[in-house]
Design brief:
Elements (H helix, E strand, L loop, with lengths): L3 H30 L3 H27 L21 H26 L3 H31 L3 H12 L13
Helix pairs in contact: 1-2, 1-3, 2-5, 3-4
The chain binds MU-OXO-diiron (FEO).
MU-OXO-diiron binds next to helix 1, helix 2 and helix 3.
Amino acid sequence: MLNEKIAKLINEQINKEFYSGYLYLDFANYYADEGLDGFAHWYEIQAMEERDHAMMMRRYLIDNGIRVTFDAIDKPDKVFKGLSDPLEAGFEHEKYVTSLINNIYSEAFSLKDFKTMQFLDWFIKEQGEEEKNAEDMVKKMQLFGHDAKGLYALNQELSARVYTPSASGPAM
Ligand code: FEO
């Protein structure tokens, strides 16, 4: 049986992961509206990955005898003034998510909950990758996004992203 506090934190994180998916779909809506279908596609896939993260956490709780409960998912309310804004917001959001995962990890560490630490190892690595991806997007946009050709090429590059289910993660 999991410690009550750990179970609560992971249950809350499920909501945050679904929110992340909702947020990234909102980014996709913005880019679709701007005619940048490659950017929209990239964030649609990101949203699917976020759902996978939520489902992995849900499964972990269920497999440990915890009754999962759902809260309302917040409305994405970011206002974008330019094409770089979602990319920068995405980078900030991933840093925030990393801090949340680190917080759960640190609680698990202090409770000597080695099972949860092992479960979270996948997420620690994933956050490292997601922060890097988000930062790369910001940098590429700064470098190439300011003329039509560069933006076109970037849009093409992002349209090639392929969805890979996070099934290699734990507890699936
Ligand atoms: Fe589920 Fe983008 O972290």
